[in-house]
């Protein structure tokens, strides 16, 4: 909640600074008339530009640094609207007719930026690549190192409970977990109490969050449940938090002090893990959440089931996470599109599975996803068709294949 207030404060400050620099009166949102605010916003949308700091000049090409990112303008409008609502003003700068001209100006500005090549694509949080996921898993296997063990528990909880690292972990204690078995006897851990998150603050109007998120034991090296148990075992009995500072020199069987880590300490975990694992890229805490959602999406889970895990309340929010496909899929799509028009590909497309044998039966089932040739031109019911989560089997005898 504090982070949200700070973000809102920064947006309001940006608008106030622009008013001062433009020689316009500073807006008092508690008393301003809709017409006056609309005129200010229309001028702001049309003329506001970011300060050309050295950091901005270094991070962006010269032609792209002169305009705000499209999301900056959209988010500022949303922040102003939120502030008006918070202070009890019956003004909606997004929907009210008085603000139509201002919003038309913003829309025209965004269209102009695209046409002029000044609009930058949105840079989403990095998804952890499959190769780096493997490196991280290997790095976190060392449960003899107190710091690495803590990293393992933090990472495992973040990815299994699809959490936000700065809001979730600091609320956990050594008594926050229940270790259970499911109906087939497989062991798992769940969280015994509710936790506050960005979109779930509690209160009378709050809907129930899913209460049965589970993290299952793998019975392999680096098992998340075993790592959690071991960290609890080596925690200080007087500690009120699960994540506490690691001791430089363990005392008896106690590897961690009773002093809880601050929220800001969790921002350093993922960069440290990235470095320790030798990842190609350096990742953030939010990358873990984005990766969890991407993995569930790639595995074919329904959006509604992913939303239950992530806590999102609408599908549009999920789409901003599960937005891409793996590098292997990108290569395959490009190879398929690199066709010569005669049904063959300029670049040979590797089969997704190598299940063929020399002694083929007279008839077999061929799944579209398993074919080893790329067909660029299709006819019949496949032409101009899109299929999602479908599986087609064709019974084809040997003579047909020949």
UniProtKB/TrEMBL annotation:
Keyword Transcription attributed: no
User: Which domain of life does this protein belong to?
Assistant: Eukaryota
Question: What keyword terms does UniProt attach to this protein?
Answer: DNA recombination
GO BP annotations, alphabetical order: DNA integration; DNA recombination
Q: Which GO molecular function terms does the record list?
A: DNA binding
Cell inner membrane as a keyword of this entry, yes or no, is no
Q: By its UniProt entry, which Gene3D superfamilies does this protein fall under?
A: Intergrase catalytic core
Q: Which residues form the Tyr recombinase domain?
A: 226-323
**Name of the protein in its database record:** Tyr recombinase domain-containing protein
Species name? Pinctada imbricata
């Amino acid at each position: 909640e504090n982070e949200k207030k700070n973000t809102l404060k920064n947006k309001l400050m940006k608008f106030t600074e622009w008013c001062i620099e433009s020689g316009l009166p500073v807006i008092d949102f508690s008393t301003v008339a809709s017409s006056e605010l609309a005129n200010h916003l229309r001028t702001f949308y049309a003329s506001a530009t970011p300060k050309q700091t050295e950091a901005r000049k270094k991070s962006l090409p010269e032609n792209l640094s002169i305009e705000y990112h499209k999301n900056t303008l959209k988010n500022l409008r949303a922040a102003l609207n939120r502030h008006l609502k918070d202070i009890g003003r019956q003004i909606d700068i997004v929907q009210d007719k008085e603000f139509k001209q201002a919003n038309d100006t913003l829309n025209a500005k965004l269209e102009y930026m695209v046409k002029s090549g000044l609009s930058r694509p949105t840079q989403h949080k990095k998804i952890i690549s499959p190769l780096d996921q493997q490196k991280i898993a290997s790095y976190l296997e060392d449960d003899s190192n107190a710091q690495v063990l803590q990293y393992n528990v933090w990472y495992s909880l973040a990815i299994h409970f699809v959490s936000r690292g700065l809001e979730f972990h600091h609320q956990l204690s050594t008594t926050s977990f229940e270790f259970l078995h499911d109906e087939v006897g497989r062991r798992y851990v769940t969280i015994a109490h509710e936790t506050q998150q960005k979109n779930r603050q509690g209160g009378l109007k709050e809907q129930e969050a899913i209460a049965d998120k589970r993290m299952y034991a793998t019975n392999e090296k680096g098992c998340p449940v075993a790592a959690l148990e071991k960290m609890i075992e080596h925690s200080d009995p007087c500690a009120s938090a699960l994540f506490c500072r690691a001791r430089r020199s363990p005392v008896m069987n106690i590897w961690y002090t009773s002093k809880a880590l601050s929220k800001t300490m969790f921002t350093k975990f993922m960069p440290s893990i990235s470095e320790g694992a030798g990842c190609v890229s350096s990742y953030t805490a939010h990358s873990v959440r984005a990766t969890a959602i991407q993995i569930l999406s790639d595995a074919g889970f329904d959006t509604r089931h992913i939303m239950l895990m992530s806590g999102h309340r609408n599908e549009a929010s999920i789409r901003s996470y599960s937005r891409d496909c793996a590098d292997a899929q990108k290569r395959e799509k490009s190879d398929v599109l690199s066709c010569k028009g005669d049904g063959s590909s300029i670049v040979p497309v590797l089969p997704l599975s190598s299940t063929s044998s020399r002694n083929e039966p007279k008839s077999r089932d061929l799944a579209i996803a398993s074919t080893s040739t790329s067909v660029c031109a299709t006819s019949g019911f496949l032409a101009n068709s899109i299929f999602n989560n479908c599986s087609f089997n064709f019974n084809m005898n040997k003579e047909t294949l020949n």
